[in-house]
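Listing S7. Sequence submitted for prediction.
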Amino acid sequence: MIARSVSLLLFSTLAIGGVAACGTPTGDPPSTGGDEASTSDVGEVESGTSESETDDSSGTDTAIDTETGTDSTGTDTAETPLLPDGRGNYVVSMFGGASTTTRWSIVRTLVLSPVDATHGTVGSESWAWHQDTFTGDAHVNKVETGYTTAGGPYVGAIKTPLGFQPGSPGTPLQGEYVLDESLLTITWQSGKWDSWELSTPLSHPTTMITLVDSNYEARHGWGFGSRAPLDTGATMSEVLATPNLSFQHLWGNRYDAPDHENLSYFPLSNYLQCSPVAIMVDEPAPLVCDRWHSYVAGDPSVDGRRNFWNQQLGEVGCAEADHPCPDPSCDQTTIGELGGHTLAMLQVLDDDGVFRGWVATEASLHGHYSGGALVAASYWLEP
């Protein structure tokens, strides 16, 4: 009974407050829609190159510039499906499903490569979690990454959704795309398709894509593309050098409950570096009940763009430890036994390889009961 009562408490929706001086939260943390419920290296992926080779009518090779739409002779090749803004490498998060007991979340990469005057190809590595098909409980579905907060105020293990841990590959997908002005449509080999609107809402050299339609119950989705290779990533020091991430959006579902939307920023100014591969929120609150345990980890030499976010409110950990707040005797100084929120993240890098934020999906999977399986998709970016 305690596991169920605790997990119901964990799913209460959080409000977002402001941030004061570094290390001093003045409000609640970035909300992932409730305090919890819960397929490898990004790998070397060939980026969409700036030029592709096609045969002209004379049988000689003609280089097509995918940014300008002209060939090496200066001829306009506007019918060629050029790369959006010349950018071929994307990270994407998605949320969907036909009902509030069959929602799913996906995080994936996209590599767009023009082929000829009729189409371009898409390659993807994809990780997905489904409310209705998982088995086991939180102990099974939230797994250790091998990273900890050693070097920080408290030492805790950093967990991630099952299937996203270091060394666990995503599912490879292949398809084709058509670019029609500001609309990008991808058709996968399975026959599923999704359409995305292109925009450049920020001054950073990136292209944003926002989901507008699909034939497989995709409800919300966002992606960010650049020329930076997908097998490179930013270090935790480079992440911490970034201002608070206040350009954001989140949609999620807790199982057999209404979908929820949150607009919450990511307060990087609250974090300190534990080690070269991990950061955590400085926890100044005197009572454990009032703290927010939040850890982010990743080693770009191993994980590429992948990062692992694990977080939990102190009062939830105390409830799991059978010392429900406001009991001041609670000494649960790290994320509790049921693992907190576990999110799979992919870094957004701009054309110059500078860290600008994350796309993320949550999979905090406890069981098939109301509030017991939280899935969500989100992004946080430097404004």
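Caption to Listing S7: primary sequence and predicted structure tokens for the chain studied. The chain has a mean pLDDT of 84. Helices lie at 2-10, 138-141, 236-240, 300-303, 314-320.
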